[in-house]
Structures are given as structure tokens and as C-alpha cells.
Amino acid sequence: MGIFDKNNEPIGARLQAFSLDMTKEKISKSLGQRFVPVLGETVIGSHIAMFGSIPADELSILKKIELDEGLPHLEFEGQWSKEFPKDMRSKLVVGWHNDNIRQLIDYAKQCNIRVIKRKGLFKNWGHFDINPSFVNGLASVKQCVDIAAKEGIYLGAHLRTFISTNDAYATPEADPRLATVGDTVLTI
User: Model's pTM, two decimal places?
Assistant: First the structure.
């Protein structure tokens, strides 16, 4: 992390790293909410990779570290995710479905966009059941994906990082395998 003076001139750098012992309950607050980390994980065996390089060499060094250390190394079409072409960064987020997919593909191509994402592809998050607006369920989604793929367009889903309250993992009773991230008490 660079450190700059009042004129935004670089004057140095700072290195910060930390890890948490996830075996001990810790309650922290963020935006007025209480969060409790998942118990059972630990920092034992964790590592930090530190290196120095000129900016032009950063990605090649990171790639080598990922591969040498057996870390997750996401690839798409045989290309490392950190080296994706710029035209993969822009996304059209819209409610694609069988009735509008061809028109949306045309719009995306006009804008040089190769990814169309959809909010609401799933009626719940956890089990990820397909939204009932797709009359034939997963077969309808696959049909859209196949149409888009022929045009060099990728379809995706806009996902959340939590389970929805209408998912079978959460209702009518919470699945005992779920971790507690926060809690609250309702009063009348």
C-alpha cells in the first residue's frame, strides 16, 4: 500500500497483514450489526506470500506463486482469470429469458459486451432452484445459454453470498449445518 504526501507524491510504502484465530468466538460490529465468525477454522497452516517486483512483472509472479503453492488458479477458456480480456469485464445485467435472449444478444454485441448476467435466475439461494419464469426450468436456461454461446456471448447469474429466507436450508427450521454469522433478539 503506497503512502503519499499532501501533494499526492509517493513517499513510501506500508505492509500490513493479519490473521484471526477462528476457533475463538469474536463479536465485531459493522454498520450497527453484530457478526460472529464461524467457529472451527484456525490460522494454523496459513501463509502469506510477499514479493517485490516492477509493476510489469506483478501478474507473472502472482501466477507462479499460485501454481507453485497449489492455490486456487481460476481459468476460463484456458486463460488465467486475472488476464481476461477487457471485453469480459463489462457485463449487461438484465432479466434475460427465452423470449428476449436474441434481442439482448444483439444489444450486447452492439456494445462489445460478451457477458449477460441475470438477477433472479434462482428463486432461492442455497438450493438454487430455477426461477419459475423459466417454464421448462433448467432446460429453458440451457436453451438460452446455447443460443448465446453460438454468438460468442456468455450468460451468467448475479449471485448473493447468503442463503435466502425462502430456501429449504432456512425454513421452516434452519438446517443445523448452517453457521451463525449474526443474531438479533426481537421484542414487542
Answer: 0.57
